[in-house]
Amino acid sequence: MxxxxxxxxxxxxxxxxxxxxxxxxxAAGRHWAALLDLLRRAL
Length: 43
Fold this sequence. Notes:
Blueprint: H1 25-42
């Protein structure tokens, strides 16, 4: 797979940044798990 798009229902723009009002713990956890998996496989 060369690319992947994710949808985080209910999460607002900026949901993965812990210092913002739109931070969403559940969505951020899913996002970071997917990103770190990608980096482990790619690097």
